[in-house]
Design a protein that fits this description.
Radius of gyration: 24 Å
Number of strands: 39
Distance between the termini: 57 Å
Strand content: over 45%
Oligomer: single chain
Largest sheet: 5 strands, antiparallel
Shape: globular
């Protein structure tokens, strides 16, 4: 009875959760990859299947672009009341049916990860399952005296990162005004402490870390006692990276990988723009590091204009003596790297396999990578336009180059493309063709849309 009452109180507290039905959702991984987002000329949004058949479409205010754990988030305008529009929020299954609704958007990226969605309400954190029910509440998480949960992350590799702080500590938002902050930066090393919990809501790694990234490839880059390390999901140290930069005990860099940004920008007292040097984006057993241009210096602060990148493996060994202007994570044994303003590809030995010649960074998927070349021709904006196509891992063109097209990578044998339509005066018309295409060049669906 006590357990039932606790659950009831939790549900009442998170009253924004309103399940519609509790049928088991099909969360087979392939379902997430057999749905492709579409937008139509009349403004409807929806999804098609791998045959190009429309599964559903509607006049959504917003619709997620991809499925996670068999669900996609949506927002839909409701009644117009007293100058305000009442919106409906929730999640749809792969058939477009509402699985559960929420009264307001959760404070997260609205993506399920490992079958769970983090929801926060006034510093109370829960994780919902794919039926919209509370699968895990952090109310019972044991915390040090005088501490509270400041932030909790999605689950990755079976663990979720939890940051704790002094009760009531909010931090200064002014510091964030001119910063691009990524997940490895601890803005308040004396106040924030990092740890990891398992899916039972128990500490797997106690909150004694100064900084830590969300696990990727079973590795987190942590800072402890002023030194950074690679750590595995058991809490074991895999590799020592080095000492960290601390500015007046206010900011500490994890010298870490970050999947999205890869760097943080700060302004020092001389109003210079600096970048904290660190290792990031761990994938396929390799991490990317960047350093002062043209050197192997281990300085922790570098100017953004001087940053260069290279790769290290799990043992901390560099795989190449080259320093790149920019670098992407490994995908299918290949990594896209930039030199002299152009992109090429290296393999896991650091060998340049495909020469620097392309103008857009890319990744291989299903053996192919979309690439672009710049064409000079007067009349176009900046007297330039781009042609795009697909190459294989030997650099051979598999799908011919065509002008004014942006491609995504292949997913389950299908790629998304956008062809921007120009008039005879070489001016963009404001319309584009959205289409999905097989590897043989056959389009399974297309629509002309006003941009």
């Amino acid at each position: 009875m006590k357990k039932f009452c606790t659950l009831l109180l939790a549900i009442l507290f998170f009253s924004c959760i309103a399940p519609v039905k509790h049928d088991t959702v099909d969360v087979i991984n392939k379902e997430n990859y057999n749905r492709w987002f579409i937008e139509k000329a009349d403004g409807r949004l929806g999804f098609i299947d791998s045959l190009g058949q429309e599964i559903f479409s509607d006049h959504f205010s917003w619709l997620g672009r991809e499925y996670n754990s068999g669900l996609v988030p949506y927002a839909k305008a409701g009644k117009y009341i007293f100058l305000n529009t009442n919106y409906e929020y929730g999640f749809l299954n792969t058939n477009g049916e509402v699985v559960f609704r929420i009264e307001k958007y959760p404070t997260s990226d609205c993506k399920f990860s490992e079958g769970l969605l983090k929801v926060e309400n006034n510093k109370k954190f829960v994780y919902l399952d794919t039926n919209g029910e509370i699968a895990l509440s952090l109310d019972s998480l044991q915390l040090p005296k005088g501490k509270e949960i400041y932030e909790a992350s999605k689950f990755s590799n079976g663990l979720a990162r939890v940051i704790i702080s002094d009760i009531g500590f909010e931090g200064s938002h002014n510091i964030l005004d001119d910063l691009i902050v990524e997940e490895s930066i601890n803005m308040y090393p004396q106040k924030w402490h990092y740890g990891f919990i398992d899916k039972k809501g128990k500490w797997k790694i106690e909150p004694t870390l100064t900084s830590a990234t969300i696990f990727q490839d079973n590795i987190s880059l942590i800072v402890k006692k002023g030194t950074s390390y690679f750590m595995n999901t058991n809490g074991d140290i895999v590799l020592k990276i080095g000492k960290q930069y601390i500015d007046n005990h206010r900011m500490i860099s994890c010298k870490a990988f970050d999947y999205s940004e890869g760097f943080a920008i700060i302004s020092d007292i001389k109003d210079k723009v600096d970048v904290i040097s660190y290792t990031y984006d761990y994938s396929e057993g390799f991490a990317i590091i960047f350093d002062r241009k043209g050197t192997n210096s281990k300085v922790d602060i570098i100017y953004r204009r001087d940053r260069t990148y290279t790769y290290i493996n799990r043992k901390g060994k560099r795989i190449s003596d080259l320093n790149f202007e920019s670098a992407e994570p490994f995908s299918e044994g290949m990594a896209c790297v930039k030199m002299n303003g152009k992109w090429g590809f290296i393999d896991t030995y650091g060998k340049l396999v495909i020469d620097f010649q392309y103008y857009v960074r890319s990744r291989f998927s299903e053996g192919l990578a979309p690439v672009s070349l710049k064409i000079k021709e007067k009349g176009y904006y900046c007297d330039t336009y781009y042609i795009s196509g697909f190459i294989d891992k030997n650099g051979k063109v598999v799908i011919p180059f065509e002008p004014h097209i942006d491609y995504d990578g292949f997913k389950n044998g299908i790629t998304k493309g956008q062809r921007f339509i120009y008039d005879h005066n070489k001016k963009y018309t404001g319309t584009y063709e959205l289409f999905y295409m097989k590897k043989n060049g056959e389009k399974i669906w297309s629509e002309i849309i006003k941009g």
